[in-house]
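TICKET: design request
STATUS: open
ATTACHED STRUCTURE:
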């Protein structure tokens, strides 16, 4: 497969799918601007790591960028970051890396120094930038095909983000981009767009009160679970997850064998207007001292329905003795690494290891568990309580099936035990209770009751009680808490007390 590590290389154009004009000279003229702008974005994953350079993976004009009038241009870029020192390494070494990591993230985990990260950028181009778009400015190139023009984040321009919706309404191909639409879906036109704030790993645009478009900023080859799983659930008849209406992806080098897997770039789904996420509802329940158990129980049922539908629609397998023992070893190793980095964890290592030893003993006694596709990052912020369209109360929906964005895509698509999602939700109840600092014993009881009710609801809908296999639940919840300790110590030290409270409880558990 040809190497795209050079800024002058773009996917080979075909007669039907032209690349952006002047693609070879485009990135060099933008590199300095993007190198300053990218690290300032909330979704940029390389914070704290020097940006050594950028390489163009693909460039596509959605609207011509060379016009002289007031009509804005729209440019879609896929760029790959390079680690510092890349240019100073021997050419043969750079070429070898370019060959093995040509497809962004194929062989190296996202964020690895070797492969770099591939980012999706949507850039608007105007001769004169209206004042309202000034905060979205990336800069003005001093040379190249866009010399002197204002280049800016196109999602903040209603005219351009509206054009993106229109493109999603019409399946087809343009340059390296391929647009798809679910059969029979109704996507209204001329909806007013607004960009959501607060997201970190992606960007989202809401169109009217009808649809929401999630754009994946850091991308890698392979279908994203946030497209794959909701489509599978829709085909299985599960209504707990909004079904994708349309999507788009990048097909790199489609005319050159072997073709790389396409990169999922964005998913358009129905917008659940009037909904509130589980985190907001849990904090409200705590502040008002209201029992959350009924809501947690119905959330457990909703989660079980989604797991059951995923197991029906997609392949499953089973973990036996060797795999479970290996899982226990991996958990023990993660505990050792976390304890080496976080001194507060060290006094509890013996008690925590007991959970992993019990998992290994469970496996030696013949225990096993089914593995299947999962949500992958389930917590109260990933569930929405939405008014029932029939007017009969409200119901839970699960969203954001992307998994943990920092993990490689291949890891996020692996089969896993449903108890992993369950443990994530149980930990989320603890997090909510710890936010209510004045709750004391009442908040602790709120968490215990919510956790028990969630498991009870899950058992009612699935026929499998998570609490019946204590060894599995305790081991996976302990592993999750250890991960949280390491994360909070590195990124939010003020929150370290939250997972440490769980560590003390789990280490002392009989």
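STATUS: resolved
RESOLUTION: sequence designed for all positions
ATTACHED SEQUENCE:
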């Amino acid at each position: 497969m040809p190497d795209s590590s050079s800024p002058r290389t773009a996917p080979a154009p075909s007669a039907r799918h032209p690349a952006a004009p002047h693609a070879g000279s485009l990135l060099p003229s933008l590199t300095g601007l993007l190198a300053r702008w990218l690290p300032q974005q909330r979704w940029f994953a390389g914070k704290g790591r020097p940006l050594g350079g950028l390489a163009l993976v693909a460039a596509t004009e959605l609207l011509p960028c060379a016009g002289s009038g007031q009509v804005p241009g729209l440019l879609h870029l896929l760029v790959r970051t390079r680690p510092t020192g890349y240019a100073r390494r021997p050419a043969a070494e750079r070429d070898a890396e370019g060959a093995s990591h040509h497809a962004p993230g194929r062989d190296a985990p996202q964020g690895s120094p070797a492969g770099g990260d591939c980012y999706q950028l949507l850039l608007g181009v105007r001769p004169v930038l209206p004042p309202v778009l000034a905060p979205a400015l990336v800069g003005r190139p001093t040379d190249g095909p866009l010399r002197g023009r204002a280049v800016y984040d196109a999602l903040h321009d209603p005219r351009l983000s509206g054009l993106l919706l229109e493109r999603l309404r019409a399946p087809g191909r343009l340059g390296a981009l391929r647009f798809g639409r679910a059969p029979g879906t109704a996507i209204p036109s001329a909806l007013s767009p607004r960009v959501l704030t607060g997201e970190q790993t992606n960007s989202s645009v809401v169109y009217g009160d009808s649809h929401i478009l999630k754009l994946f900023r850091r991308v890698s080859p392979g279908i994203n679970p946030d497209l794959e799983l909701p489509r599978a659930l829709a085909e299985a008849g599960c209504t707990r997850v909004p079904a994708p209406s349309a999507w788009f992806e990048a097909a790199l080098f489609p005319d050159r064998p072997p073709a790389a897997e396409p990169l999922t770039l964005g998913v358009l789904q129905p917008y659940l207007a009037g909904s509130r996420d589980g985190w907001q509802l849990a904090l409200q329940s705590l502040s008002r001292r209201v029992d959350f158990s009924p809501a947690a129980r119905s959330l457990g049922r909703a989660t079980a329905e989604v797991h059951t539908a995923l197991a029906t629609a997609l392949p499953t397998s089973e973990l036996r003795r060797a795999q479970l023992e290996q899982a226990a070893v991996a958990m023990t190793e993660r505990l050792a690494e976390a304890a080496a980095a976080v001194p507060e964890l060290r006094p509890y290592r013996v008690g925590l290891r007991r959970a992993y030893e019990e998992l290994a003993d469970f496996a030696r006694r013949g225990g096993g568990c089914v593995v299947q596709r999962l949500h992958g990052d389930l917590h109260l912020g990933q569930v929405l309580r939405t008014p029932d369209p029939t007017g009969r109360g409200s119901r839970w929906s699960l969203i954001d099936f992307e998994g943990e964005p920092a993990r490689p895509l291949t890891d996020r698509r692996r089969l896993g035990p449903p108890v992993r999602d369950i443990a994530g939700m149980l930990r989320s109840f603890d997090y909510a209770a710890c936010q209510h600092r004045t709750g004391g014993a009442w908040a602790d009881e709120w968490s215990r009751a919510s956790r028990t009710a969630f498991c009870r609801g899950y058992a009612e809908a699935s026929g499998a009680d998570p609490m019946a296999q204590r060894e599995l639940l305790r081991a996976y919840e302990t592993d999750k808490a250890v991960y949280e300790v390491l994360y909070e110590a590195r990124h939010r030290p003020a929150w370290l007390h939250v997972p440490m409270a769980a560590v003390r409880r789990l280490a002392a558990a009989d």
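CLOSING REMARK: Residues 23-270 form one domain. Confidence is low (pLDDT under 50) at residues 1-18, 86-114.
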